């Protein structure tokens, strides 16, 4: 629908209705000194000068394809088929905004419906919404759901392997609710069985966690449900194409970061928060849900369903403050999943599994290096003979980004490095990383 500017005649008619004579009168309630402040801005630049300035800034960045890249920690360098960008950049998608008017939004609504259908199968859940701002937001909204669903229950159990930045987002979200947040280690089932049986709102498990470790989720759901809590699983959708789905373990709510499904790293965003729920929670899930319907003539169509638009703007009575979604990021995930298919996603997961385990085995064979024990997917912890920050800086000089020095989040762990290997890393890349790490401490 085109934007049609207001004509001078229409503006004059509106002024008459408002009882004013000039636009400036609209701002008369503001203190005079604040109405039209002078801004201390530099002189304007020409188009050529702007391009030069932006190009100079862009050259300071490090694109993943210019390095041997082993950095993950929540944002992953996966291969994206060219068709994803080509289809998602079509004008009917890039200019689309709200799907509330179903009569002019059938394409957008169908893409949401198809995305939700594929995510439901991937997660093993029954209801999926159209997306959140990112994985951290989706998880925070999930915990908020649990607190609102279990009135009077305030205890929230979080795993020690939760991404540190996700914990900060949770603290911000939950600041007004006074929850009792506890951190647990080990089995979720054991953690759920400990403590009072009357105050558990939810338990969160990462699958895998920030360190790439894969927890044992068997028995967690019954233990949590026996305490009256909600079982939330947060993880990596690429891994779920290879492993059992979170829903098969009895999860009530599943969240994830969807950036790895066809979305670029983009130096930090926009990303895509995935949220899927059981049928019992479908009336509590925030955001949009698209459904398939039939009109009076039996023709197929798509609509927003299960919740009214107004529920997202009712202040304290709303189920969420989320009233929009990452539409283009969701669309890219939809196209990516359609292109890869079930077997393709499994193949990507297998490549990540085998390549990361090959890398871990090669690094573990180096003198003075130690790889953390336990099952892992795509990411693993390495303890170096010396400071990880210094080693990473030396390797970067050779165009190798070896991973994340853990001291960024844990200052008391200066020798640990979180290494990530995806399907894009070749054997030559991995062998070059191993040689470079060995050279640092030779």
List the helices and strands and how they pair.
Elements: H1 8-18, H2 32-35, H3 47-58, E1 68-69, H4 82-88, H5 91-94, H6 106-123, E2 127-128, H7 135-149, E3 155-159, H8 164-173, E4 180-184, H9 188-193, E5 200-207, H10 220-226, E6 230-235, H11 237-240, E7 253-257, E8 273-277, E9 290-294, E10 300-304, H12 327-364, E11 370-371, E12 379-383, H13 388-396, E13 400-401, E14 404-405, E15 416-420, H14 427-440
Parallel strand pairs: 1-13, 3-4, 3-5, 5-6, 6-7
Antiparallel strand pairs: 2-8, 7-8, 9-10, 11-12, 12-15, 14-15
Number of domains: 2
Reported CATH architecture of the largest domain: 3-Layer(aba) Sandwich
Q: What is the oligomer described by this structure?
A: single chain
Distance between the termini: 65 Å
Specify the overall morphology: globular
Q: Flag low-confidence runs.
A: none
What features would you describe in this structure?
The protein has 14 helices and 15 strands. The chain is α/β, with parallel strands linked by helices. The protein folds into two domains: 64-79 and 342-440, Aspartate Aminotransferase, domain 1; 82-337, Type I PLP-dependent aspartate aminotransferase-like (Major domain) (Aspartate Aminotransferase, domain 2), CATH 3.40.640. Helix 8 links the parallel strand 3 (155-159) and strand 4 (180-184). Helix 7 (135-149) crosses helix 8. The relative contact order is 0.14.
